[in-house]
Amino acid sequence: MDKSMSNRFRYHFSATKMVFWTCIFLGLIFLFFLHAPQHHSDPVPRRRILRSPDWESRVAKSSQPRSRAGGMRVLVTGAAGFVGTHVSAALRRRGDGVVGLDNFNSYYDPSLKQARRAVLERAEVFVVEGDVNDAALLRKLFELGKFTHVMHLAAQAGVRYAMKNPASYVHSNIAGLVALFEACKSADPQPAIVWASSSSVYGLNTKVPFSEKDRTDQPSSLYAATKKAGEEIAHTYNHIYGLSITGLRFFTVYGPWGRPDMAYFFFTKDMLKGKPIHVFEGPNHFTVARDFTYIDDIVKGCLGALDTAEKSTGSGGVKKGKAQLRVYNLGNTSPVPVGKLVNILEKLLKVKAKKVVMPMPANGDVLFTHANISQAQRDFGYRPTTDLQSGLKKFVKWYLDYYHSDGALKSSL
Ligand SMILES: O=C(O)[C@H]1O[C@H](OP(=O)(O)OP(=O)(O)OC[C@H]2O[C@@H](n3ccc(=O)[nH]c3=O)[C@H](O)[C@@H]2O)[C@H](O)[C@@H](O)[C@@H]1O
Questions:
Q1: What CATH topology corresponds to 55-250+294-331+369-385?
Q2: Which among 161, 169, 223, 254 is annotated as catalytic?
């Protein structure tokens, strides 16, 4: 081979190599974008939503009040969630029209959400799959359902998860809330809104029991901060558009069909499997305690708030007069140490827990909660009646039936 040929060959060879490596590089970039999550602020990538062809007529039918003259027409967001399922079923039982909305995300086992949906289907509550951030879907739902009330329970829950996925809290609890208020303000008629705030807004407040008049400007988690922000956003929409808005500060709600990310739920699961559970304690062995509130009491509080909600005053997106703006604690008024919760579970499950007592990690948790409920009592007769022992008994019965047998409870509330 002469020198020029050898050079040409070398040139040709290195050009081929360059093309080869460029293709590999571009291919890798393509694969990266193909697999990168599309919605960075979602807790999990969303599934493609396929709605049945008759979904619009099902919304119209489900929104019709059944028996009660003057029954409400309620849109329940987060209807396949723990509180949403119970509230939707209770409203339907008494004859109100109810349409559910839920995005069925996989923050926790979506099959539990689908099972709750099945329960609601049997109760004749139709649940639409969709996200509260979907403005076009909300518009359509309001058109079809002519809702008089919205029970807004769709949210990114959980205190500790906020450190893992902060964006999901902004997506659901801030952007989602604003999207919902936007839809309500433009709806005709404007509905009255009751929505889930949280006891966590009291944050580092040490004055007990927590009263609605106490300060809520020291949230200790991003979760709490988004709920507190929600309360301020509610003020704005009430002030500018005349929306009637009631925020309910729930205190650690538990019970059958509950949330698997909550301590009472995964303690039960781990204890039955013989796995260790971590029981947090505060500085100097301070007892961590919660005002655990049973789901049936919370449902009564939600219905009471809906029943006493005044109409919104705006129309065509314009305020016509002063509208109602409220916030209430819905707790049990008797805090129980987490250690005591474990003792109750040990008796009910008949197993000894492998307790690992450890200092509470700095993950946003607060040391204790304790509700003063006098305002809810005064305004809509809220009076919790279930103590932790009785409520956990019902939870354990459901849990064993749901996860350890094919029993009938699987299909009922
Ligand atoms: O009431 C509220 O505002 C909040 O109640 C719960 O939050 P939390 O009270 O922290 O409920 P859990 O996560 O079930 O924790 C209950 C107690 O168990 C403790 N815990 C939790 C996890 C663990 O591994 N060990 C442990 O001792 C926590 O510190 C807490 O005192 C819900 O998860 C929030 O969505 C809700 O807004």
A1: Rossmann fold (3.40.50)
A2: 223
